[in-house]
């Protein structure tokens, strides 16, 4: 899937993005460490990123997990990531997770991207339920879920354990296909 917007575009992960992925993760390390610790850990050097991106491209091709990058049109810098993961093809269900740079925050890019990827997942992949799992302290992420039509379902006790922190309760939002 490739989709262009006014000042950025969404593209499937590709092996040619390894250096840019490393740049994105290292520049945004503080931002990623709490809720994307594995992505951060696997992209702390160009060599690690090369392996990570190659693995994610294979998973994308095999329809095991889909990783998209948000890239600025002007200089093609990665400004965000969106995963479609935890796929259960039997239940026709998947989970979205996303992160953007500080510079992209508050510009509507995440909302636009979540809407586009959600539509793609429901129509093209024929998933029936999409989930977003967020911590209540991440107000921007909660707002994205709500703006994209996701409905709060319940509290997931001890769902996520950030590095060097106790387990956190997380909020589950869902979008169900009605077509």
Q: What's the short version?
A:
Helix content is 33%, strand content 33%.
Q: How would you sum up this structure, described in words?
A:
Helices cover 33% and strands 33% of the residues. The chain is of the alpha+beta class. It contains six helices and eight strands; from the N terminus they run ββααααβββαβαββ. It has a single domain (2-176), classed as Aminopeptidase, CATH 3.40.630. α1 packs across α4 (46-61). β7 (151-160) and β8 (168-176) form a beta hairpin.
What is the secondary structure topology, with strand pairs?
Elements: E1 2-4, E2 8-12, H1 18-27, H2 29-32, H3 37-41, H4 46-61, E3 66-72, E4 78-88, E5 93-100, H5 109-123, E6 129-134, H6 139-147, E7 151-160, E8 168-176
| Main structural class | alpha+beta
- Succession of helices and strands: EEHHHHEEEHEHEE
- Low-pLDDT regions: none
Q: CATH H level: which superfamily?
A: Gcn5-related N-acetyltransferase (GNAT)
Please report the number of helical segments: 6
CATH topology call: Aminopeptidase
Report the CATH architecture.
3-Layer(aba) Sandwich
Number of beta strands: 8
Let me know the average pLDDT: 94
Largest sheet: 8 strands, mixed
Residue share in β-strands: 25-35%
**Count of the separate structural domains:** 1
Helix content: 25-40%
Estimate the global geometry from the Cα principal axes. globular
Distance between the termini: 22 Å
In the sheet with the most strands, the strands line up as 1-2-3-4-5-6-8-7
Supply the CATH class.
Alpha Beta
Round the Cα radius of gyration to an integer and report it: 15 Å
């Amino acid at each position: 899937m490739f989709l262009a917007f006014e000042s950025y575009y969404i593209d499937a992960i590709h092996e040619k993005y390894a250096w840019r992925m490393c740049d994105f993760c290292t520049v945004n390390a503080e931002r990623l460490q709490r809720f994307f610790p594995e992505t951060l850990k696997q992209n702390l050097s160009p060599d690690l990123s090369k392996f990570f991106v190659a693995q994610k491209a294979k998973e994308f091709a095999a329809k095991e997990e889909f990783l998209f990058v948000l890239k600025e049109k002007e200089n093609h810098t990665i400004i965000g990531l969106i995963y479609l993961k935890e796929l259960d093809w039997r239940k026709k269900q998947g989970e979205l997770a996303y992160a953007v740079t500080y510079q992209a925050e508050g510009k509507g890019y995440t909302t636009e991207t979540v809407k586009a990827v959600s539509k793609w997942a429901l129509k093209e992949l024929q998933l029936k339920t999409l989930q977003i799992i967020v911590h209540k302290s991440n107000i921007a992420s909660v707002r994205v879920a709500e703006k994209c039509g996701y409905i709060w379902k319940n509290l997931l006790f001890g769902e996520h354990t950030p590095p060097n922190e106790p387990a956190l309760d997380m909020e589950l939002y869902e979008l169900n296909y009605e077509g």
